[in-house]
Amino acid sequence: MIGVGVVGYGYWGPNLVRNFVSNSSARVVRVSDLDTAKLAACQRLYPGVETTHHYEDLLKDSKIDAVAIATPVHTHYGLALAALKAGKHVLVEKPLAQGTNLVRRLIDEADRRGLTLMVDHTFLYTPAVQKIQNLLSRDELGEIYYYDSTRSSLGLFQSDVNVIWDLAVHDVAIIQYILDELPVAVSATGSSHVAGSPENMAHITLFFESRCVAHVNVNWLSPIKVRQTFIGGSKKMIVYNDLEPTEKIKVYDKGITLNAPEENAHQMRIGYRAGDMWAPHISATEALQIEIEHFLECVNTGATPISSGLSGLWVTDVLEAACRSIADHGRPVQLKLRKQTLKRVAAVA
Amino acid sequence: MIGVGVVGYGYWGPNLVRNFVSNSSARVVRVSDLDTAKLAACQRLYPGVETTHHYEDLLKDSKIDAVAIATPVHTHYGLALAALKAGKHVLVEKPLAQGTNLVRRLIDEADRRGLTLMVDHTFLYTPAVQKIQNLLSRDELGEIYYYDSTRSSLGLFQSDVNVIWDLAVHDVAIIQYILDELPVAVSATGSSHVAGSPENMAHITLFFESRCVAHVNVNWLSPIKVRQTFIGGSKKMIVYNDLEPTEKIKVYDKGITLNAPEENAHQMRIGYRAGDMWAPHISATEALQIEIEHFLECVNTGATPISSGLSGLWVTDVLEAACRSIADHGRPVQLKLRKQTLKRVAAVA
Amino acid sequence: MIGVGVVGYGYWGPNLVRNFVSNSSARVVRVSDLDTAKLAACQRLYPGVETTHHYEDLLKDSKIDAVAIATPVHTHYGLALAALKAGKHVLVEKPLAQGTNLVRRLIDEADRRGLTLMVDHTFLYTPAVQKIQNLLSRDELGEIYYYDSTRSSLGLFQSDVNVIWDLAVHDVAIIQYILDELPVAVSATGSSHVAGSPENMAHITLFFESRCVAHVNVNWLSPIKVRQTFIGGSKKMIVYNDLEPTEKIKVYDKGITLNAPEENAHQMRIGYRAGDMWAPHISATEALQIEIEHFLECVNTGATPISSGLSGLWVTDVLEAACRSIADHGRPVQLKLRKQTLKRVAAVA
Amino acid sequence: MIGVGVVGYGYWGPNLVRNFVSNSSARVVRVSDLDTAKLAACQRLYPGVETTHHYEDLLKDSKIDAVAIATPVHTHYGLALAALKAGKHVLVEKPLAQGTNLVRRLIDEADRRGLTLMVDHTFLYTPAVQKIQNLLSRDELGEIYYYDSTRSSLGLFQSDVNVIWDLAVHDVAIIQYILDELPVAVSATGSSHVAGSPENMAHITLFFESRCVAHVNVNWLSPIKVRQTFIGGSKKMIVYNDLEPTEKIKVYDKGITLNAPEENAHQMRIGYRAGDMWAPHISATEALQIEIEHFLECVNTGATPISSGLSGLWVTDVLEAACRSIADHGRPVQLKLRKQTLKRVAAVA
Fold first, then answer.
1. pTM recorded for the entire structure
2. Residue pLDDT, tens place only, A1-23
3. Does the CB of D154 have a partner CB in chain A at under 8 Å?
4. Domain range for residue C62?
5. Which residues of A touch D279 (CB under 8 A)?
6. A209, B27, D33, D117: which one has the fewest Cβ atoms less than 10 Å from its Cβ?
7. What is the C-alpha to C-alpha distance for residues B66 and B62, in angstroms, rounded to an integer?
8. How far is CA D244 from CA A16, A248, B244, D240, in A?
């Protein structure tokens, strides 16, 4: 039984508490938040859980083995570092921290102490993304030509991060998870339409050494919610719509093959196999339930999480580069980290 | 009664012929194509229309007042110039020509001779785009924040132009038509996944002097057809889905207003007015019918078409700049033409 | 603060408990269920709530003012009657009981004791149905021509009731709630495709004195979930799709007006006004939260609930008649209860 | 080369002419219509086709081998009989005639003269219905439990037939085509909301000797167009949406298997296999093109058409019975014709 403390009972915290409470391997010992009303709401639902305004109470509590952090982004680094120093395993809401240097420091601390450091890239644990990863790892799509994603909605502005750190982070994590190679450069454009507020819409292009290209379109000012991703391969293509209640993933049997161009032809129809579509059954299990099960298992066994600190490091590196490119109106920025690097860093650590 | 000749009876030509035939102000005199089978198909449907392998037969025919050109892109300039020199009014399939220098030459020739030169930007004549233009011109949306469009499908590769000249051309023409200002710079990325073939997917960002940003996502390798545009304004937002049979335009009554951030708040919910949605009735009239009616009227009255040569010039300028940016991995390219410039050029001409 | 006991912690019970717990006017005192595992799950989430295998413990508990019943249909009558006799207010999952005679007995008991008796017709409390009721009561649609509903999905078979008592019950309750008149006869057909199981699909037609006709299509064997209702009026029409995340209700501005038929015309186009569509903003509040607030208020004030015992009586009467018609392959069965009757019965009581 | 005459150039006639003109085995000789403007429109498009106000001109024309009839329903019988008597093969728009006695007379006349008599049940020739027929004939769905169809839209009222003869006719023809057995009884309800006009909405239930049930919902007063059919089987289920541009047919791998009910269980979850969905590629060929090819082939070879006179007889029989049931508020009406009967009648003829 792993004792858990949760920091932050705002938007995401209640989901963490609910899922830890439902997991038979964990026990939620204490929740901290600065807001008394939120703590009262927590107590109403879970009279057995203690609450506090002081984060330190969690760190000092010997019944707490792991801390889950669901606070504003700019506080992630400080809270996570303090938890690690107190010997607690740590699960941090995405993004892990606001800079690769901070993330490296956290990884270092966790490695030195042999603690689990995991970033809450929830989408990686959705049955839909798990299925996509499975399809790609079995080479069902052939050579990957592109990953093209739109993630937009109206509503929740963050004052301390822009839309890239809030929404594009999901796609960048997914790209790292499902593709064999990592991008070598990023070009991005973005803009803000609310004075004094960070970028609320952005377009990011990721370049790879292969012909693969990834594009991510994120927007906080969209009248409707869109969560749609196209993945095109030489053999098949996937349309992944996260808002579909049951048929989230559609696999199109439409490989393209180029016909030899006819003499003088100005239009060559590519010989595409206009085949069937197939929507595999996707489990309806909540991603956070799967993720928390995975976190608790990593804490118990010492295994490296799918969304490890190194995963967070790489994601942070891409987001930083994207922001630099935005500041420069789309000029491409080189990326340095490679999958091998990540593995080596991991091995060294 | 305006006598019409049509060059090219491949993919688009039959639509031109059908619509000219149905228009009571026009008479289709002759159709030319290099392909005997295509001419036979034309004759089967329209026994009264003459056919020929020789384009010159159209130019020499005194019964022909206007020529419509629906041939491969690289032939547009030569065929249009010859027609103008023969004293014919000209309607050219988009894009008008493969370079601003060529387009300027056509505009010059048409102006000198007092002939109508119109480019077939069909989408401008759809009842949906007409309705959008109407809504924006009445300031229904307030300040325009963004135009974000995806236009993708699987199938028709062009060997002589890339996906930007084939698909993005529509959005660039629409942007010019519906917005008050024109972009000042363009950043684009693109890639080809078929050896020896031009770019089959691209992302284009257009920057404006105001906070407005336009983005166009075009793709020839998409498993499903997408024709979707979001237009966000300070007062309302539009979702335009051209594939919807009847409700192509949805207007969302969701202006955003920024709430004063609470003390210490890390998340400020923007005060958005989650209002109603409204889908105005859109006529089902075929765009090409409206466009050809407009072309014939311009020929008759000497009026300047909505999609005039100058419109084509500006669109070509943007497409050229986008291609330069792609070659440079997204580096922004400045645009020189302004609405005023276009008007002045027009006035001078 | 109203003390609440909940009987049955299976499929629906947890939703009742969660909503009573979240309501500041109520306190959940005790939950009973025959299944130990279910009670344990309840305790895990709500350590402050007592649990028991014995329903009598709720009836004897003086801290409990009201009992909510979420058990198999055939037990509703017995449990509700016992609760009323013990002086408790009662909220019963739909259908209220399996026969009008039983329902009358419950109404009688509640009236005699001055207790609130409410049936859990949840759909009446959805913001969507509330909006529809509001539109119809303001005569936005004109004369109502039809109500046509499809409610189907795959999955939950009930062994003690057929699909009419499980699914059609929702539409029958909605019809009573939103229409001015009640049907005078019912014709229904149904069938079972699982040996020994009650009907799993049925079609019900309700006839009115006016030209209005209501039709309800319910099916437990559908591969996809459908929750769609069309309401046609002389002035406007509504499409209500409960599965749409935000645009659940679409109001079509398409009144029909019959053109005088032309001489010898075999097709007269009705003069329909192909107008706009409008989707009013619908609140995302959970129906059960609204319903429980309403229940608690009725308990406090003695007001008659929207879904009172008499409402349940009328619904039960229609369902019984529909089942008789099914047994007779669709022969129409007359209905006796009228809105006036219901009101008079209420007044007498 | 089969010479063809077409009667009626209103709504459907132009489609017939266009498809006969495009078919290399046919030549459209003459078109007749009472309306001069319509004949002028025909001549404008097809200068090679003769036109006439007099139907007799088609019958007397020896260059005409076959006559296609696209006129008001009440004229079908007279025009078809005259054509047969003049020795012409006949294709009649649906429904074949307004009564089984009239249809029998036409079948008799065609058989006696060895002429092809075909009814234009266009939907049978759609690639989608052909695919469904193929799936069912290979027993992909197992035992068929139900066929449930909704076919509604706003617009075209017919003054000489009700909505059953106009819209339900399609489903009745499809049912006969794809199912192994024919219904033994029909129950229907319907109503008119326009004074002096025939029924504009109706619901029809078809009963079979097996447990299969078919239901057809037709409506001329729907704010939106619906063309949706569910076919449920013991092994798989089909959702057929004719308005989907490409994925018209979805096959759900969701057979149901009943679990042994647990002791005291009031809800038994049927053991359904929540499997994958599969959308077979459907050709985009126009149904009428396939149908006319089939008609011309039957004329040439003497083969019996899929939608033969006997098919039309059976469909007419069901529609008549449905109308009788409507007049009796849903009382079931027995059907006499069986598949064997149809075959025997065919054999005798």
1. 0.88
2. 999 999 999 989 999 999 999 89
3. no
4. 2-121+288-307+343-348
5. 276-279
6. A209
7. 10
8. 40, 18, 10, 9
